[in-house]
């Protein structure tokens, strides 16, 4: 039995990102939350104020025998615009930045290689941060499965 692995991505508003990742075969859980900031226990209001430096992000739990980290990174780059700094569509601010928070050096290497490959193939400058993951704070309960709750 393959153990669960973890990946953390920020690609704009976490509602849509969580919903998209949750539909990938091999992904067993996705949580919305905050990472990459300077304060402990951030709230949605504090993150939106722009004072905490946290990004809205998702923690993806997956089975590596069903989906590889490389495929998750590739998918991440497909579901948002990684060439805009601190912005996704109408959402503007550092909390909406494009970022990959790696767990270990293997994830860092894979994320960097996929980023470089996509930059070369598409001829674009990708601004996605690739940063060592620190504490991931779960978002408030009303943010979890937000799109799924609204569509039922």
Explained architecture:
There is one protein chain. With 152 residues, the protein is of the alpha+beta class. The chain has one domain (4-150): Peptide Methionine Sulfoxide Reductase, Chain A (2-Layer Sandwich). 31% of the residues lie in helices and 27% in strands. It is built from five helices and eight strands; from the N terminus they run E-H-E-H-E-H-E-E-E-H-E-E-H. The strands form two sheets. The protein has a six-stranded mixed beta sheet, covered by helices on one side. Strands 4-5 form a two-stranded antiparallel sheet. The model has no long low-confidence stretch (mean pLDDT 94).
Name the average pLDDT.
94
Number of domains: 1
Please identify, by name, the CATH architecture.
2-Layer Sandwich
The CATH class name reads: Alpha Beta
DSSP helical segment count:
5
Structural class: alpha+beta
What's this entry about, in short?
The chain is built from five helices and eight strands, in the order E-H-E-H-E-H-E-E-E-H-E-E-H.
């Amino acid at each position: 039995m393959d153990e669960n692995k973890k990946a953390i991505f920020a690609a704009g508003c976490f509602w849509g990102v969580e919903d998209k990742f949750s539909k990938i075969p091999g992904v067993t859980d996705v949580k919305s939350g905050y990472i990459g900031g300077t304060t402990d226990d951030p709230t949605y209001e504090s993150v939106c104020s722009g004072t905490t430096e946290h990004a809205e992000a998702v923690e993806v739990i997956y089975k590596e025998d069903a989906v590889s980290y490389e495929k998750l990174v590739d998918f991440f780059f497909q579901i948002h615009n990684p060439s805009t700094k601190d912005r996704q569509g109408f959402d503007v601010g550092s909390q909406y930045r494009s970022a990959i928070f790696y767990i270990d050096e293997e994830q860092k290497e894979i994320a960097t290689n996929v980023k470089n490959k996509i930059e070369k193939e598409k001829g674009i400058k990708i601004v996605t941060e690739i940063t060592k993951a620190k504490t991931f704070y779960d978002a408030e309960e009303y943010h979890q499965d937000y799109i799924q709750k609204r569509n039922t």
